[in-house]
Design brief:
Length: about 500
């Protein structure tokens, strides 16, 4: 999809669809007013009026009040060059004549729905004439680009005959004035790059476990680095991991026929001397629970247990597109969690790369077992901050639902920066405690630490487990169990938290 910012003449512009704004009370934006014309007919020298100002008349007839999320599509409007006219409701204007950022996004999200049944290939969105509270043209253009590109993603790559879709956008023009064009163009670039990262993460997340194996993820990472001077990718095989002493990670892949992979990405776009930020992703390509087998209901959704890994790869995709001037390391612990005859058993004790011994009381608490070794491995990059991203606990879904990712950290500045990034990227996280009080739930009679902490505070004890392996750096843990995918009719990966991660990386170098 090609997106460009241009100065446009709303009434004269030829397009499959012109998109304009209306506010609560039926108030029209400048470009909506420009197309609110009185159609005329020319007959032998005289021009006759053939109707009232058509847009206003239409809105009135349909009781369209410009409420947030309302929209109205007019086919073949008279007297203007556009083939269709889509009016979006932005809700009420504040005292300064501005709409809220939430209402702006809400309105934009309606475009895909409103045009779903049309054959529009090319549209023009004329919203440069509305002001959004605390936001500029760059923000607007970024939102539009992000929303349009992510809304066009389809999870049909494995259908033998993909459903016929009529609304496939190839070209989008954003109407802005001269003073806004350069900021808007910047916003488009950023929005596109983020959306491509998000869609990439979604596609990987949606692929089933029989296709998206640890080996597949490793190949995708290698593929990302092809012909890229700033990115290098290295894959550590099980033998290399054993040599490093990664007994915890390997205890998870022990029960699977698929070999585990440690995928290491190094993006060097910044100053050589600047310490990198490290992203560590949980890449369980299918989580059966192992010998502590999960119940059958909705177990298919455990193909999404590699969404942390997918968000790391998606973030690197965005960084590459932006050629961002920063240094970032990615470490992905990729494995299946399966219950074959060599599988780890409850009660087994394994030795992690850090030297700490772990009593595996429940083989379904496998995410922390692969992450702890990946986190220890990350020490070698002397990172200035380490962020792990993991679909770690069902308990986090209970605590925060699908709205916010759980955020745990041993560093207040890092925690604040991530919260802020999530807020500004519309991909929020929310802080959870990591108090010492919870640590004793991980005591084991036989090893240094147990891999589960009982029923209470499940997402916190999981984070406490990880905290035992992150003492050497500023660290944050994002539990994305509730945010990484949607269930039910809209089942599918969301691509979160790619927007949060990209925002954090760009804002904190
Ligand atoms: N991948 C799951 C977490 C999960 C479960 C995410 C359901 C989203 C929905 C993780 O590996 C797991 O199984 N965690 C256990 C931990 C427990 C055994 C301490 C859980 O949350 O039940
Ligand atoms: Mn599990
Ligand atoms: Zn899991």
């Amino acid at each position: 999809m090609q997106i460009t910012a241009k100065i446009i003449d709303a009434a004269k512009l030829s397009t499959h669809c012109l998109v304009v704004a209306c506010f609560e009370g039926g108030k029209l934006s400048t470009s909506a007013s420009a197309v609110n014309i009185t159609p005329t007919s020319k007959t032998a020298g005289s021009t006759k009026t053939i109707g009232a100002q058509q847009l206003e008349a239409l809105l009135k007839r349909e009781h369209f009040a410009g409420k947030s999320g309302q929209n109205l599509l007019q086919l073949s409007p008279l007297g203007i060059a556009a083939e269709r006219l889509l009016v979006l409701g932005f809700g009420s204007l504040d005292n300064d004549g501005k709409v809220s950022a939430d209402n702006f996004r809400k309105a934009l999200q309606k475009i895909a729905d409103a045009l779903k049944a049309t054959h529009c290939k090319e549209i023009c969105i004329s919203l440069g004439d509305i002001s959004v509270c605390d936001k500029d043209a760059e923000w607007q253009a970024r939102q539009i680009s992000e929303i349009l590109i992510t809304s066009q993603y389809r999870s049909d790559s494995l259908k033998s005959k993909p459903a016929e879709v009529s609304f496939v956008l190839t070209k989008v023009t954003l109407g802005f004035n001269k003073a806004q064009i350069s900021a808007a163009t910047k916003g488009i670039k950023l929005g596109q790059a983020i959306a491509h990262g998000v869609n990439f993460a979604r596609e990987l997340g949606n692929l089933p476990g029989n296709i998206c194996t640890p080996t597949y993820l490793a190949r995708e990472a290698k593929h990302l680095a092809r012909n890229q001077s700033k990115l290098s990718v290295k894959i550590l095989e099980e033998k290399a991991m054993a040599a490093l002493g990664m007994g915890s990670l390997l205890s998870v892949s022990a029960g699977s026929d698929q070999p585990a992979k440690l995928i290491v990405l190094e993006y060097k776009g910044g100053n050589k001397k600047t310490a990198p930020v490290a992203l560590v992703g949980k890449g369980i390509t299918f989580d059966t629970g192992g010998i502590s087998l999960k119940p059958g209901a909705a177990m298919d959704e455990m193909k999404f247990d590699m969404c942390g890994a997918a968000s790391v790869l998606g973030t690197f995709k965005t960084l590459l597109e932006l050629q961002a001037p920063i240094n970032v390391v990615g470490v992905i612990a990729a494995s299946e969690n399966m219950p074959n005859g060599s599988a780890t058993k409850p009660g087994d004790i394994v030795t992690s790369m850090s030297g700490l011994t772990i009593e595996v009381l429940n083989t379904d608490a496998e995410g922390r077992l692969v992450l702890c070794d990946a986190l220890t491995y990350t020490e070698r990059f002397k990172p200035k901050a380490v962020i792990d991203i993991a679909t770690l606990t069902g308990a986090c879904v209970i605590a925060l639902g699908g709205h916010a990712s759980g955020l745990f950290s041993n560093n207040e500045a890092l925690s604040q920066a991530l919260l802020k990034a999530g807020q500004s990227a519309n991909d929020r996280a929310w802080p959870m405690p990591l108090w010492d009080d919870y640590q004793k739930q991980l005591d084991s009679n036989f090893a240094d630490i147990a891999n589960i902490g009982g029923r209470e505070a499940g997402s916190i004890t999981a984070a406490c487990f990880l905290s035992r392996f992150t003492k050497k750096f500023a660290w944050a843990h994002l539990d994305i169990a509730g945010t990484a995918w949607l269930s039910g009719g809209a089942k599918g990966a969301t691509g979160r938290p790619v927007p949060l991660l990209v925002q954090y990386l760009l804002d904190n170098q």
